[in-house]
Every structure is written in structure tokens, then in C-alpha cells.
Design goal:
4 copies of one chain form a homotetramer. Chain A is an all-alpha fold. Chain A is built from 9 helices and no strands. The radius of gyration of chain A is 19 Å and the shape is elongated. The first copy, chain A, starts with a helix and ends in a 21-residue tail after the last helix. In chain A, about 35% of the residues are buried. At the C-D interface, helix 8 and helix 9 of C face helix 8 and helix 9 of D. Chain B binds a DNA duplex through helix 1 and helix 3. Chains A, B, C, D: This is TetR/AcrR family transcriptional regulator.
DNA sequence: AATGAATGAGCGTTCATTCAT
DNA sequence: TATGAATGAACGCTCATTCAT
């Protein structure tokens, strides 16, 4: 009985993940249930409501990312750890998490995980800066934000070109002075 | 009444723009009408249906961008023209246009404008490559795609840091050989 | 000014008549106004609301029918007068009046006219029965009801075949005893 | 639950039938649902949209009529079979079917049933003509049309008097020559 | 525990009616 | 006075959620 229930639970989560990826996060609960091969009732037995289901998926993805990130933390060169983390991210449906994070999630885990993942990565960024591979004129938190936006908000399938270009933009060229960050940033929401 | 009607029309378009920006493009027509300070009926007098309203906003934004881009085309240095165009883009809600363009828009203008804007920018990119400011190993169309994704799909408020980093990634460093595009690109959907 | 107003009024009534005939009585006020070549405001200046407009048309039609019926009353043979009245009816959009009459009309004229027209025709029917042209076993009021239903509720264009068959059913054959009305009528809503 | 669902389905169909009969076919879905004692959602679970509901009712009515007509076909005297069929018709809300048939129904069954019922009745009419009970100068198809109009378009509750008079108009008087169809029909859409 | 029928609030849209011009 | 823009109640329909089986 437990085994069945578990199987159902993950069938539902998988179905939600798949459909949300394919058709946007507006998929209906009915469709998710059908895709999972269960009735809506079963879906609601496992997840009290739509938000809970979506948050659950997001939590799973973030946990996976946190674990991967923890495994990379401290490994040198940090630059390459960063590359591996990005590679890892692009396989996760992190795009889902954004709207959930801005929207006052029910599960406290969600912002906690975000904070944890963010600071883990910021640490790796700082390491890479210290190792001279990442331009030092970008505060680590900003660099993480840039990476995050690039990887998570840019469509379901991460765009390699974009990712590569962003990383190139962050990287310190090996054989010259770090590029000067252009001017004073002016009108943005602050540098 | 003409003056009032015009005022209403743009109040509605503005409201739609603002709310679609803030809360995603799933805003309800009622909310848009309320935000604009009119009744739903008025909204529907000006825009026959939801799609028409959204497409209208997108067309306005694309037209503005096309005009700005035309004005920049041919100006040297192309690199700086590109910077100005990006600056222009970040103020526009181009994120809206994406789903409309993929979804078989009713208004033929929409894909036409996209093609026009895209090739105008590709021309400027090619100029910048010829002028030695933009790495030549990225095909102009790809560079435009990267910029587009960076600027249009990355949230309602464009992120200056991201933009700058992307541009830095595209730029040819002034005083050294162009960086070698890392390896063979491997697993992406093609370089 | 008065002339214009009158012209507008009848343009609206005509348009309503035409459209209600063509597309059923669910035509929108906007469409009627457009067909009449005026704005909705003008329509509402002449007719306080939709019901008033429809009732007005019905009153006009009934008045015309009353006048025609008055002119026929007393003329012999009554049977032929009846034929002419039916011919007259088929040109009128009396179908409209039914729902208005059952629905508690605002204008008292409407049921009054109906009563008047009905009893005028009943008189002619009675004459025809006296003259031996119409079967005497149908109460005049019933005969009128039958004619009314046949002519008014059977579609926009009156159906000659139906009308003729109904009249043949009512007519006393010239050279034989009146047919006996079949049995006792039994289960109907009363004979 | 199957039993309940079936009960609901027919409660909805019955309610729709009743209300469409009483108040015309413009009844709102909400009203139908309320009359059936269910929520709108339930209504829509059983019938995908308004048209489907109406067509369903019409199909049911036509099927019932077809079965009754088949049972009568070939029975002598055909004239009495016809009477029974008419008796049957008046109990059905066939008036609904007219607008559905003119309006390109979704369900192909609808026009098919109409053709079948129509030709079955035309056969019975022809039999009645052969048996000398129905005037031979009316083409069977026309006679069916007349009956159809009389029975179906003349209000929700069929009018016995009308029906009887129409049938009398169609009937061959037992003891005299068939009446001559009056003149040449003149201005109609052709005799 | 699983099912899917039932529910009803809410969305997009229409249209009779009002009112500013 | 004529216009047509504005209004909002009401409609057809969807879907997250509940509940009887």
C-alpha cells in the first residue's frame, strides 16, 4: 500500500513537472492527474492544493541543486565547479520556482533553500574571484543573480549560447588585466 | 469624446502593460479594466478580445523598437548603437511578444515586425563584428538571439547586470586576440 | 426637425422589423440602429427600451390588420373576406406579437387590439358559417385561434400550403353535409 | 455514482426540455442547471456546451419519433397510422429541432434522423393516398411539410384543433370527389 | 486508498441601457 | 437633437477543489 502510494506520488510530481515544462505552469490539475494515470482525488490526497504541488516540485529541484552545490563547494578550481553547477541547473525546472518565491510561498523551506543555495554558490563565486578566474568587480551576490536569471528565467530549455556568453562575461580573461566594469552603471536599479 | 476615448484607450493599454509586467500575462480583463479606471465594456469597445489587446501592446512595443533600431542602423561605432538599442529594449515589455509570436498571432504585423527588427539588429551586429568590437565567431543571428533572450525573457524588469555581462561576453576585448570560443559546444542544440 | 424625427422613427421601426424577420427576434439594438442608419442614442430617444420598440412594431402590425379587418367586416361572401384577411396577415410579422402578448405587455393597446381583431375575425367567421361556407361545428373563436396559429406562428414567410390546407379543413364542402367533427375531442386541452 | 450520474443527466435533459418548452430556447444554462437541481459544472460535465445539450434533446425526441413511426409504417389503414403519429408528435418538443437543423448541427445524426423520419412519414402519406383517404393532389413530401409545420412550429404545446383541421384539410372526403386544389396557387413559392 | 462526479467562483465576452459630448 | 463611448449585469464556459461512493 505504501509502495503504491509512493509510486503515485512521484508519478504525479513527474507528470506535473513534464506538463509544466511543456505547456507552461498553467496546466490543469485534471490534466496532471490524467498524465499521471490517476484520478484527481488521488492527486489531492497527496497534495492539498495546486500551490502545494508546485511548491513540492520546486522544493525537490532546489534540494537536488543544493546537494549538487554542496558537493561542489570547496573544490578547486572554483570556476570549473561553477560550470558544473550551471550544467546541473539547466536540467532542472527552476523556472517554476521564481513565481513561487516571489509569491510568499506556503512552505518556509522554499526561501530557506533558496538562501542556502544562493550563498553556497556565492561562496564558490568568491572562490573563483580569489582564484583569479572571475572578475572581481562584480559582487558575488550579483554574479549569482546574473547566473540565476540567465539559467532560470530564460525558457524551459536553458540556452547554451546564452549561458556561455554570460559565463564569458563573468570570466577573467587569463592573460590580461581584468576588464574595467564600464563606468558607473548609471540608471539601473543599482549596481 | 474623441479625446476621452483616446485617453481611455491608452489608459487601458498602459494598465495592461503594467499589470502584465507585474503579474504575468495571465492578468484578467476585469483587473486591467479596473486598473485603467474603466468598465470592462469600455475595454472591449477598444479591443475586440484579450488576444487583440495583448497583440496591440506587442505591436506598439515592436514598432517603437523598430523605429529606434532604424535610427541606429548604420551609425558608427555599431557597438555603441547596439548598446543604445539594448537600453531601449529594456524599457519595453517585449516579454509579452514571445508567447504571441509562437502562438500564430492574428495580426500579420507581429511576425513581420519581428523579422524586420531582427534583421536590422543582425545588420548592426555584423557591422560591430566588422568594426572589430564584437567577437566574429558568433553568427549575427545567434548574437541577436542571445541578446533577445537576455533582454526579453529575463523578467519584466530587464536586468542591467545581465545585459552588461552578456554584452561583455559578446564583445571583443580591445587589446588582445579574440577569445577562442570554448571548444566545440558539445551537447547544446548546435553552436 | 419634426420631419427628420419621424423619418428616423420609422427607419428604426422598419429596420427592427426587417432584422427581426430575417434573424429572429434576438437582434441587438446596436444592429437595429446601424441598419436604420442612426446611433443607438437616437434609437433610445424614440423607444425607451427594447420591449417598447418590439411592442411598437407589433402595435403597428395589429393596427394595420385591424383596419384591414374592419374594411372586410360585413362584406359578403364572408368566406372570401376571410381569404383576403389571411392574405393580409401573411404579409405581417405577427409572429413577433405572440411572445409579447403572452408576456404581460407594457402597452395596454396590445391586448386590446388583439381582442378587437380577434372578435372582428370571429364575426366574419360566424358570417361564413351562416352563409354555409365554413363548417358550423367549430366555434368561431376556435376557428380564429386555428387561423392565428397557422398564420402567425409558422415561420417568417407564411406557408401557402399550410394556409390553404387549414382553410380547406375549415371550409364547408359545397355539395355535401358538413363533415361531423370527429368524435368528442377527448384528450386535448378542451374542444 | 453511476446511478446518480445517470439520474443527473436525465434531470438536466428534462429540465432543459421543460424550460425550453416553457420559455423558448433562449433559456440560460444556469437556469437549466438550477431547474435540474445541480450546479453548472455538472451540467457541463454531461454536455460539453449549450449546443450539445440542445442537440441531445433533439436527437432523443427524433429517435423516439422515428421508432414510433417505424412501428406504424405499413399498418393499414395508413390514415389512422398517420393520426397516431401526429398524436405522438404533439407530445415531443420538436420545435427545438428546427433551428438546430437549419444551423448546421454538430451531430450528423440530426439531419440523418430527420431524413429518415421524413421519408417514413412520406411513405405512410403515400399509402394513405393510395388507400383513398388522403387527397392525391398534394405531393407526399408537401403533405409531410405541412404536417411538420403544423405540429412542430406552432408553439410548444401542439394545438389539437389545428392538427385536426389540418388533417381534415388533407383528408379525402369519403363520399365525394376529391376537392380541386384551388386555382394555380399564384404567388407562393410554388405549389 | 482511489475514483471521478459535483460544485461554484471566476473568466472572457456580449449587449441593453445611460450619459457626456 | 444625435451620437457613440461607457457601463455593468448576465451569459457561456473552465477549473481548482470537495465529497459521495
Amino acid at each position: 500500500m505504501r509502495a503504491d502510494a509512493l509510486r503515485n506520488r512521484s508519478a504525479i510530481a513527474d507528470a506535473a513537472l513534464r506538463l509544466a515544462g511543456e505547456r507552461g505552469e498553467a496546466v490543469s490539475m485534471e490534466d496532471i492527474a490524467r498524465e499521471a494515470g490517476v484520478g484527481v482525488g488521488t492527486l489531492y490526497r497527496h497534495f492539498p492544493d495546486r500551490r502545494a504541488l508546485l511548491e513540492d516540485i520546486a522544493v525537490d529541484a532546489l534540494r537536488e541543486l543544493r546537494d549538487a552545490t554542496r558537493a561542489e563547494a570547496g573544490r578547486a578550481p572554483a570556476w570549473e565547479a561553477l560550470l558544473r553547477i550551471v550544467d546541473h541547473c539547466v536540467a532542472l525546472p527552476l523556472s517554476l520556482t521564481k513565481s513561487l518565491l516571489t509569491d510568499e510561498p506556503e512552505r518556509a523551506e522554499l526561501p530557506e533553500l533558496e538562501v542556502e543555495v544562493t550563498s553556497l554558490i556565492a561562496g564558490i563565486v568568491a572562490d573563483a574571484q580569489r582564484e583569479g578566474d572571475l572578475r572581481a568587480d562584480v559582487p558575488p551576490a550579483e554574479a549569482v543573480r546574473v547566473l540565476n536569471v540567465a539559467v532560470c528565467r530564460c525558457g524551459a530549455r536553458a540556452d547554451d549560447h546564452l549561458t556561455r556568453v554570460v559565463l564569458d562575461g563573468l570570466r577573467v580573461p587569463k592573460n590580461r588585466r581584468p576588464p574595467v566594469w564600464r563606468g558607473d552603471e548609471g540608471r539601473g536599479e543599482g549596481s
